[in-house]
Amino acid sequence: MKFYxxxxxxxxxxxLIGKLIVIEGADGSGRxxxxxxxxxxxxxxxxxxxxxxxxRSNLVSAELEEAMQGNILSPLTLSLFYATDFADQMExxxxxxxxxxxxxxxxxxxxxxxxxxxxxxxxxxxxxxxxEEIALVPDAVFYLDVAPRFLIERTITKxxxxxxxxxxxxxxxxxxxxxxxIKYQRKMRQVFLSLHRNYGxxxxxxxxxxxxxxxxxxxxxxxxx
Length: 225
Hints:
alpha/beta; Rossmann fold; 8 helices; globular
């Protein structure tokens, strides 16, 4: 295992004996379902599993959630909030779990964070410098690729509404939240595909039934384990 960049101080990567597996995908892509199914499957196979994701750090997650309720955060403030959340989890949850030999399942990683910021006009070089300095290279990254028209159907079915930020309303693509959601998710997908070429993660057809996707992911993860 290695860091993309210099890495966190006093971390010896040779001590990290666990596995880091990332599930990426848009809101409504079925990430939560796949995380649950994979966790149950891995634990059933005898592996110890730790789940991590966005807005879960003890340091800033509550403050970030509260700040997002007002829908007034600037792109830079939002970016720095998420970077702090990620760095805290990397140091205090991901690395200790990997040292203990756990499998760390990440519900999104630096790729979602960079993609969101790029869609909002963030400088790609600046974002890479921030995240690559502190992020470990995962053992595998799986991107659940789902058509935007399915995303909106699944999101409405699950939540009965659309989220302000996941619909990109702050980017002023449209005044209509449904139209904004489609346009925003299309832009997100375009940036994800560009990152796909840079970081080499695997694309998974997310338009299928959950059990079919889970079986596909299990086959791919078995090769890593």
